[in-house]
Amino acid sequence: MTNFSLLTGWVAKMMPTDYIGFTFFIGCMAMMAASAFFFLSLSQFDKKWRTSVLVSGLITFIAAVHYFYMRDYWSAFGESPTFFRYVDWVLTVPLMCLEFYLILKVAGAKTSLLWKMIGYSLVMLVTGYFGEAVDPGNAAMWGLVSGLAYFIIVYEIWLGEASKLAKSAGGSVLEAHKILCWFVLVGWAIYPLGYMLGTEGWYTSMLGKGNVDVAYNIADAINKIGFGLVIYNLAVKSSKD
Fold first, then answer.
1. pLDDT tens digits for 98-116?
2. Least crowded by CB within 10 Å, which of 21, 28, 121, 205?
């Protein structure tokens, strides 16, 4: 009875104009559906690609669970669920970096590349969280460090070691790598923009302030599911070769 009451209470609060709550709900269901798709497709791939597809499913599954809680948090308090969002990111973003390593293993990628990418991603996320939730008075400073880590990741995959490995692999791996690079450059760009809109700093006078949960939710779904579909497509092509 209690669970039913909680559920009906939450549904009653979902007004037709609550676009933020709507995107939390859609994000949760879309990523759960993507997880089921990736997990159920595992058996059709060669062993060397199974791990990559499995990681894609884990990324969307972790995100779906967090979106379930973020949806309820928004419903209960009407506030951006910053804590849950960063917990989601600190788990899923390193896994997305892992995807780069997994597809580049065929070209000889070493674990040093993996740990380097994960390290940059954690710096990006931890400093971002400090700027938004722990020390908002110095948000511009924390945001600068977070942004630098983001651009180092962009450099690494577009021009650095990861790029060179992708070119040496060629074929479907290079094609998939390029698409993933665009996801990071364009798709991930919403996150530093959202950070600036949600905090106070030198940039506030130019961008103003506002709630970016809708943009975050849509970007999360596109980036995480899109990442997985690129890996899935690579696995399908490679299994046919």
1. 999 999 998 889 999 999 9
2. 205
User: Under 8 Å CB-to-CB from 66, ≥6 apart: which residues?
Assistant: 84, 85, 87, 88
Q: Which contacts of 145-151 are long-range, i.e. CB under 8 A and separated by 24 or more positions? A: 146/192, 146/195, 147/192, 149/120, 149/121, 149/123, 149/124, 150/124, 150/188, 150/191, 150/192
Among residues 30, 35, 36, 28, which one has the least CA distance to residue 73? 28
What was the pLDDT predicted at 15?
67
User: What gap in Å lies between CA 93 and CA 188, rounded to an integer?
Assistant: 10
3-state helix, strand, coil in the chain (%, to 5): 85, 0, 15
- Name which of 93, 127, 102, 124 is nearest 223 in CA terms: 93
CA–CA dist 124, 225 (Å, integer): 21
Residue written as token pair 């971002």: 128
Backbone phi and psi for residue 170, each to the nearest 5 degrees, phi listed first: 65, -170
Q: What's at 74, amino acid-wise? A: W
Which 3 state secondary structure label does DSSP give 170? coil
